[in-house]
Design a protein that fits this description.
271 residues
């Protein structure tokens, strides 16, 4: 793993976008996924608890509940992958909460020493809604996460926020983070969302966040995005600059080809 400064990451991003190329954040839960995501040319790799549990066969939401210490897990996973990932900037998906962890200054330095170039709020209170979200907000909440991310940014880490609705997206923008991943949802009804509706939602978000923070980059994820066709439409009709792959679509990328291969082998007849 190679550590990059915020300025170096911005230069890499500018080089891609100035040449009309979309940016890709790839989720890596295991060394094999990291290896092939990098080989495919992703601009960022993010290592986080949801991706780790997803690659172990569990629902990604497993990484968002109290089954492990997610912030220590990303350090452990980076140590396992450090000789696999060569040149791609790696982002730590963490629960950024100083009420729970105390002053995270030392932790952010540990992340840099491990090889991380940035941090992303993943898992985050922004992934939840309803009564559970109310409980999270009473204990910590997105505003506290953003205060913690400001500290990370001041220590030279590239910062990426995560949101699933307009209000949370604006909260991320007001914090002055470098980028936002806006998820179009993870439920079955979200996957069935018309692309036209997704475009409208993204346009509303980009307008709101750029009024607050003109320089923030917008990535999209989830919802009806299942491949290049949907992304092409979104990139043509919005100001989004990139896509976070593997958010919850990773099973579509990996499981279907594996299952199809198994079926094709099983269909072969014996003499």
């Amino acid at each position: 793993m190679k550590t990059y400064t915020r300025d170096e990451i911005k230069q890499r991003i500018t080089h891609e976008t100035d040449n009309g190329r979309a940016l890709v954040i790839g989720n890596a839960g295991l060394g094999m996924t990291a290896k092939f995501i990098e080989r495919g040319g992703a601009d960022f790799l993010t290592i986080n608890a949801p991706a780790y549990y997803q690659m172990r066969g569990y629902p990604p939401i497993t990484g968002c509940i109290a089954v492990t210490e997610c912030n220590e897990l990303v350090i452990e996973l980076a140590q396992r992958m450090k000789n696999i990932i060569k040149d791609t900037p790696v982002i730590a998906g963490i629960y950024c909460n100083e009420r729970a962890y105390g002053d995270m200054t030392e932790y952010f330095e540990r992340l840099k020493e491990t090889g991380y170039s940035g941090v992303m709020t993943y898992p985050t209170a922004a992934m939840e809604e309803g009564v559970f979200r109310d409980y999270l907000e009473s204990a910590s909440g997105l505003e506290m996460e953003m205060a913690c991310m400001k500290r990370a940014k001041s220590q030279g880490l590239y910062t990426i926020g995560f949101a699933m609705d307009l209000a949370d997206a604006v909260t991320v923008a007001r914090a002055g983070l470098d980028a936002l991943v806006f998820s179009l949802g993870i439920l079955k009804e979200d996957v069935k969302m018309p692309v036209e509706e997704a475009v409208d939602r993204i346009r509303a978000v980009e307008k709101a966040i750029h009024e607050v923070s003109p320089g923030i980059l917008l990535f999209v994820a989830g919802g009806p995005i299942r491949g290049a066709a949907e992304l092409k439409r979104i990139f043509e009709d919005t100001d989004a600059v990139g896509y976070m792959d593997g958010h919850f679509a990773l099973p579509l990328v990996i499981s279907e080809p594996i299952a199809q291969a198994a079926v094709s082998f099983k269909e072969k007849k014996l003499n």
